[in-house]
Amino acid sequence: MNNILVAFISSAIPLGVPLLYGSTGEIVTEKSGHLNLGIPGIMYVGAISGVIGAFLYEMSCGNVKENMVPALAILIPLLCAIIGSVLMGLIYSFLTVTLRANQNVTGLALTTFGIGVGNFFGGSLAKLVESDLPNVILTKTSDFFCTKLPFYDKLGWFGQIFLSHDFLTYASVVIALIVSFVLNRTRTGLNLRAVGESPATADAAGINVTRYKYVSTCIGSAIAGLGGLQYVMAYANGVWSNNAFGDRGWMAIALVIFALWKPTMAILGSFLFGALCNVYNYVHHFFHLGHDANRELFNLLPYVVTLLVLIITSMRKKREHQPPQSLGLSYFREER
Amino acid sequence: MADTVKKNREPLMHIVKRDDITGWKAWAIRIGAILLGLLLTGVISGLLTGASFGEVYSIMFKGVFGKFSMIFQGKTTMLWRFLQQTAILLCLALAVTPAFKMRFWNCGAEGQALMGGLAAMICMIEIGDKVPNGVLILIILASSLLAGAIWGLIPAIFHALYKTNETLFTLMMNYVATQLVAYYVVLTTAGAGSNIIKPVEHGNLPILLGEKYLLNVLVVTFLMVAVFIYLKYSKHGYEIAVVGESQNTARYVGINVKKVIIRTMMISGAICGIAGMLMVAGTDHSINTNTMGGQGFTAIMISWMGQFNPFIMAAMSGLVTFLKTGAAKVADTFFLNSSYADIVSGIVILFLVGCEFFIKFSVKFRHGKKGGKV
Predict the structure, then answer these.
(1) Same domain for B282 and B214?
(2) pLDDT by residue (tens digit) across B120-150?
(3) Which of B294, B286, B299, B302 is closest to B352 using CA atoms?
(4) Which CATH architecture has domain A3-321?
(5) Neighbouring-strand partners of residue B14
(6) ipTM for the complex?
(7) Is residue B256 part of a domain?
(8) Has residue B272 been placed in a domain?
(9) Among A90, A108, A257, B327, which has the highest number of CB atoms less than 10 A from its own CB?
């Protein structure tokens, strides 16, 4: 196979992974009827919590890689990322479920807050180590995260594309499959979907609506937070720089619509979007573009495709392709 | 037996929807929430910096308005900068308000404003030296209005015809606009050695009374009154309110819902276009992808917190601008990261969002044992 094509595909996959985590998390949340626009902020918090955990662990080991226990080097950032993002999920669900606040406004405020928290601690840590660049560099932890399958480089292009990634990449696919199974094949999933479609009916059937909403929002946040962690530890090789995560969180939310609220479709969509984002980096290898500025236009690709998908799915109006019916609405038992 | 008796007990507290709450009570709750938020941010600031509560807020105040003596000496630059930032934020909030009142979640103010700004920039660069300044400004005004309106129109058409999700549509339009600006910047600066468009001299909005920001503030003040009247006293405003309350009712009384959605979003986009024009032709005389600085997103929260009332929105814009500039000053003084400002404003906004619960509902506690067994 063409070398550039192999490089293109294998570098597109890590670009898609944060999107897959984000959209799987958002699907879990949206199934309970909550449109969590705080996901971009939650992913930042997940990432920075992981960075803080890894930073403290590296410090406590005296910055020597030999002192670090591989299992701890992975588990500490992982747990920190999950705790950080679940806390954000709790703030969101307390405001929207218990206090019945407007979901859009709460989500946007949480995103502002989360990005602020991420950049604040990121910038402060960078200042703490007195590095010249505004970065926090955790290559040692990143090495543990990026441990690859031992035989991938012996399998040519197949190994390069499918086997050369970190474990969080494979975990993202596994998590999406598990979520798909739980949503469609278990009673818990059925109850959760009932809560999202019609909380009043679910309530009457004896389902604890509040608990389902809380738990699904928090699990969704935890999954999304892992996306932030994967970005820093694997894609960026353990280098945190402020705002580097960019607008991936918003794209993950848009992917939910692309995926029609199905985690299995989200797997496909995320890697397709990873490829679309990657076109900008590779397009000059394939085509002659003339003016330099023309390359900028390829940055538009993921957004334009999202828009087209949005339009097409809304035009087709299939019943199974619709969002959960009570998406975005607060539920108050006494209001009928 | 004992267990079943326990289970039948009334829960510790339950919530009841309030029928109606008097205006001053609602505002007491909101102001209380703001104060609580400020208290919490003050405590956090104190923990981070070691400064006392009063110190933090006096730094914030001086960072925003300058010292009092400076105002009396006629050195009002900082005050004007505060007014300018408040005005632009308010302008964007005013723009999204008609759409919100219609329950159309226009999250695209950032993009609509950028397109307005981009249109102004293109006019200034491409035809700036070919037409007299007065004519040029009129052309800029028209093209900014048009560009913003088109950016609002596209999601509105699809929403009206196919019910396409407008929140995500407008969000994506933001990024398309940002990329178009990036494209134009690269295009015009190609070969110039830097990626910044140098301030253009043609088509600058006039400076009134020697104050650079006065015109911007006046335009937005005018818009504030205009939007208030439009929403409250015009037929359009009435139609918007009905569509927002219930589309079925609107259809029943003979309102053309699709027409109202499309028209309102064009107005919303056009006002955003004005904000973009004020930033590009009136202030920066240049453009980059960060010209609006994310204010389009803050504006959404402002509009909602201001209860869709332009005058309250003005106060909220002032509050948020105060928090952001003030917190940036605190961060600067104590060598904290500048993102500290986002945390501070985020906390206060979350408090404000949460307090609406206590306005809509009231919490009733169980009264003693006798009340519990009715």
Answers:
(1) yes
(2) 999 888 887 888 888 888 999 999 999 999 9
(3) B302
(4) Orthogonal Bundle (1.10)
(5) B364
(6) 0.84
(7) yes
(8) yes
(9) B327
Question: Domain containing B119: what range?
Answer: 78-318
What 3-state class would DSSP assign to B131? coil
d(CA A38, CA A108) in angstroms, rounded, equals 6
pLDDT by 10s per residue, chain A, length 336: 577 888 888 888 888 999 999 999 999 999 999 989 899 999 999 999 999 998 888 888 877 777 777 888 889 999 999 999 999 999 999 999 988 888 888 998 899 899 989 988 888 888 777 666 667 778 778 878 777 766 666 667 777 777 777 888 889 999 999 999 999 999 999 999 999 989 999 999 999 999 999 999 999 999 999 999 999 888 888 888 877 787 888 889 888 888 888 999 999 999 998 888 888 777 777 776 666 667 778 888 888 888 888 888 888 777 777 778 888 788 887 775
Distance in angstroms (rounded) separating the CA atoms of residues B275 and B113: 6
CB contact under 8 A, A104 and B347: no
Window A:282-301, CB contacts with B under 8 Å: 291-293, 296-297, 299-300
Give the contacts of A287 (CB within 8 A, at least 6 positions apart).
Answer: none
Residue B130 covered by a domain? yes
Residues in A closer than 8 angstroms to B345, CB to CB, are 112
| Closest to B184 measured CA to CA, from B255, B126, B249 | B126
Beta strands in A146-270 (DSSP E): 239-241
CA-based nearest residue in chain A for residue B178: A300
Residue B40 near residue B344 (C-beta atoms within 8 A): no
State how far the Cα of A219 lies from the Cα of A90, in Å rounded to an integer: 10
Same domain (yes/no): B280, B145? yes
Q: Do A35 and A328 touch, CB atoms closer than 8 A?
A: yes
Best mutation target among B19, B164, B187, B290 (most A Cβ atoms within 10 Å) is B164
Count up the domains in chain B and report the number.
2
- Tokens 């699809």 — which residue? B158
Q: Are residues B193 and B287 in the same domain?
A: yes
Nearest to A310 among B169, B336, B361 (CB): B169
d(CA A135, CA A123): 7
Q: Is B336 helix (H, G, I), strand (E, B) or coil?
A: coil
Residue labelled with tokens 């093209």:
B143
B164 and B211 share one domain: yes
Round to whole Å and give the CA distance between B258 and B256: 6
Instruction: Tell me the angle at which helices B340-360 and B310-333 cross, rounded to the nearest 10 degrees.
Output: 140
Which pair of tokens denotes residue A43? 């992913």
The verdict on B192 touching A (C-beta cutoff 8 Å) is: no
Distance linking the first and last C-alpha atoms of chain A: 62
- Closest-CA distance, A162 to chain B, in angstroms, reads 31
Q: Is residue B326 part of a domain?
A: no
- Cα–Cα distance for residue pair A170/B166, rounded to 1 Å: 33
Q: Where are the domains of chain A?
A: 3-321
pLDDT 10s digits, B86-96: 999 999 999 99
Q: Are B277 and B143 in contact (CB under 8 A)?
A: no
